[in-house]
Amino acid sequence: MYRWPAVQEAAEATRYQPRPDLPFPHLATPPTKHAESKNSLNSAANIILGRRSAQRFDARHTMPKQVFIQMIEALLPVARFPWNTLASHPLINLILFIHRVEGITPGLYLLLRAPRLAAQLSQSLNSQFLCQPVLEIPEHIPLQLLTPAPSTALYRTARSLHCHQDIAANACFAVGMLAEYNAAISHDASSYRDMHREAGLIGQVLYLQAESHGLRGTGIGCFFDEPVHQLLGLADDTFQTIYHFTVGLPLEDSRISTTFTFEPTTI
Ligand SMILES: Cc1cc2nc3c(=O)[nH]c(=O)nc-3n(C[C@H](O)[C@H](O)[C@H](O)COP(=O)(O)O)c2cc1C
Fold this sequence. Notes:
This protein is an alpha+beta fold.
């Protein structure tokens, strides 16, 4: 078995120290609530228990714009569950490789979840990026076009950056989670854990959002971080990409089955 001493060292170095009187993270006020789904097939229990990772995606499927809007709106860290369970203020902004979303030009995008970091990001990211607000979606969603890209080039780039995995290229969109890194960790080493908790939560929200819209997601832990940083023009450790994700229409693998070990209604 391989041993990875660096993992143990990181675990020890980032252990939480007693942090008395931490100010409660300030989160933006949520927009008006969406209507709850009345469809019992779409109950939270069914979605959670039926969740699986996609193995392959349908490369011809285009995500409806409304679905995309709901999914990325759910990723904005506002003052309600689940974002109010995190110990720190938001540390993660999202890079989106948008392949096929109705009405959205394929390309590289930034979802500014942590506006606190906007000035630093614009200093650090490739100065050629357009950083244009996307006018096709509601104004309160801070999505910016960094650069449009021909579909074939985007397919190749997304695939090779994600360890040559087709799931990153055939999805409707793939996401890179770009964390504030050096400053956060220098200030408090346990931020390293906070940023990974936030990344995990973003992944879980994407998994369940995808499932609830009849789509599917897959967490991507295998990606090449240095080439991702080069693509973005990042020259140092101010920001680091720490987890990726991909969402699309799954192609079912009939060899894999999901069984419930208990009735969802008994939860
Ligand atoms: C942190 C994390 C990283 C992952 N990375 C990859 C990946 O790079 N490629 C992939 O095909 N699946 C990846 N997965 C998906 C796992 O293979 C999948 O979650 C696991 O097989 C369990 O299946 P399930 O999600 O359907 O329950 C990842 C999942 C997580 C949570």
